[in-house]
Design brief:
188 residues, transmembrane helix, single chain, transmembrane, membrane, Permease, mainly alpha, 6 helices
Length: 188
């Protein structure tokens, strides 16, 4: 759901114009960014579930994608953003980081632990919308459409030049549609 996360960042930018767009884009992906070195060191892993719908991965990201792990990443990112851009930006960045976990909860299969390392062997969370390919694509597309519309309206109201608003909106739209098509293309 890379494109959907980025769509959310675009929507947030429209409501938080003082927070840099790049920081919102990074914030939406911070959990996955943290996942990469842990995947590279085999601390976290994933299994492909071919023929099982969109997002054919069952992740074993027991640290980065645990509820508590996501909260910790959100708090740290929010604290850093507060130091750099002020209190309001810190709250926004922290919320955007945590939004990744909420969106993943909706689409992931039951592969997201509550505690880091799945301490206590508590039930894994995930509503599994990825199993319903058309619904998961529609949900992600909705996030993209809402994000692009909100961002475009914001840019047209705030950009000093109309051409700047048009170019940035088209660029964002192309990026998000490309990311969605890349994900969808992996299943067809």
């Amino acid at each position: 759901m890379f494109a959907g996360h980025f769509g959310l960042a675009a929507a947030v930018k429209a409501k938080a114009p003082k927070v840099p767009l790049w920081s919102l884009l990074v914030a939406t992906q911070l959990m996955d960014i943290a996942f990469i070195p842990l995947l590279a060191t085999n601390v976290e892993t994933f299994d492909e579930q071919h023929g099982n719908g969109y997002g054919e991965l069952v992740i074993h990201a027991d640290y980065t994608h645990s509820l508590v792990g996501a909260l910790i990443l959100a708090l740290v990112a929010g604290w850093i953003a507060k130091r750099v851009w002020g209190s309001q930006a810190g709250k926004i960045i922290g919320a955007v980081v945590f939004s990744h976990w909420i969106l993943d909860l909706i689409v992931h299969r039951a592969d997201m632990p509550i505690l880091p390392g799945n301490l206590g062997n508590l039930p894994l969370l995930g509503f599994g919308v990825w199993k319903l390919t058309n619904l998961s694509i529609a949900l992600e597309l909705l996030l993209i459409i809402v994000g692009v519309i909100m961002y475009t309206v914001y840019k047209f109201r705030s950009a000093p030049k109309r051409s700047s608003a048009i170019l940035s909106s088209i660029g964002l739209s192309v990026l998000l549609i490309f990311l969605l098509l890349n994900d969808v293309g992996a299943i067809f």
